Amino acid sequence: MADDDEIILSELSDDELVLQMHDDLYDGMKPEIEEGVNILLERGWEPYEVLTKALVGGMTIVGNDFRDGILFVPEVLLAANAMKGGMAILKPLLAETGAPKVGKMVIGTVKGDIHDIGKNLVGMMMEGAGFEVIDLGINNAADKYIEALKSEGADILGMSALLTTTMPYMKVVIDSLVEMGIRDDYIVLVGGAPLNEEFGKAIGADAYCRDAAVAVETAKSFIARKHNQMKA
Ligand code: B1M
To answer: What are the b/e assignments for 35-60, b being 16+ CB within 10 Å?
Structure first.
């Protein structure tokens, strides 16, 4: 028999389970997060709903307490690891298989920045929407992005930055594209918590994307425009 205070995740209502998952994410409990994700999926939740309500919702609380000095790097790393466990289950469900690819995106976190959860989420959602995604990982210098754009024949460059100190590097990458005379060959999308639309415009990006869903919609509409221009 279970201990009196042991929580059986499968016995909780949906709302209770989501709140419990926020707690478990906060405590970096990866197996519990994976179990919670599976339970919600078995109950018929859409993968995107599990992602946003249970995982991203939990990470927002972690972020607030990190900001306020209640949580520190080791705890946040554990939370991030738990989140990645849940994301790994959702990834194949969000990614369509066998669908014709609508476009190709090179994505990576900029130089000096090691945050990758948001970038991974964008990559997953883009794959789910039928894009081919080349993920360069974290800490990317301009030449790494440019090399990949060229060798992969990509349509879109996606850059992520989570720090106010690293977001200006996005302009360095865009300026390099301009200097090489290839800026207009690519759709440049940028994102990350400290950015905003004004910043995106100021650095010469095509668009700032608030979240992964917006990134998908923006990419789709730019690709459609590109195809229409090619037809005309
Ligand atoms: Co960092 N960290 N962190 N951190 N961390 C933040 C960003 C911070 C806001 C925390 C805080 O103070 N509240 C703060 C930045 C402050 C600032 O710059 N003004 C901060 C700091 C200071 C630091 C360190 C400097 C701490 C230190 O060492 N003293 C250090 C920096 C290391 C470095 O990069 N050089 C550091 C380290 C870490 C960890 C390693 C512990 C860990 C990262 C683990 C990992 O990513 N593997 C970590 C984490 C987890 C966070 C918070 C808590 C959560 C980030 C996250 O994953 N969010 C974060 C607080 C916060 O953001 N509230 C924080 C969830 C994710 C789904 O959201 O990444 O915003 P997000 O992505 C969204 C959108 O922004 C958008 O779509 C995503 C999905 O909807 N998006 C894109 C993102 N990229 C996109 C690209 C696109 C389009 C959309 O391309 C087209």
So the answer is: bbbebbbeeebebbebbebbbbebbe
* CA 30 from centroid of its chain's CA atoms: 19
Dihedral angle of Cα 24, 28, 29, 32, to the nearest 10 degrees: 50
* Nearest Cα residue to 169 out of 206, 197, 195, 150: 195
Give the SS3 label for residue 100. Answer: coil
DSSP state of 211: S
For the chain, how are helix, strand and coil distributed in percent, rounded to 5?
60, 10, 30
Q: Is 83 in the pocket of ligand 1 (CB under 6 A)?
A: no
Reading the block at residue 53, the tokens are 């309500």
Which residues contact residue 217 at a Cβ distance below 8 angstroms, ignoring those fewer than 6 apart?
Answer: none
Note whether 58 and 117 are within 8 A (CB): no
Whether residue 58 has its Cβ less than 6 Å from ligand 1: no
61 Cβ below 6 A of ligand 1:
no
**pLDDT tens per residue across span 128-145:** 778 899 999 999 999 999
What does DSSP say about strands 131-135 and 156-160: parallel, antiparallel, or unpaired?
A: unpaired
pLDDT in tens, 106-134: 999 999 999 999 999 899 888 877 889 99
Residue whose Cα lies nearest atom 1 of ligand 1: it is 115
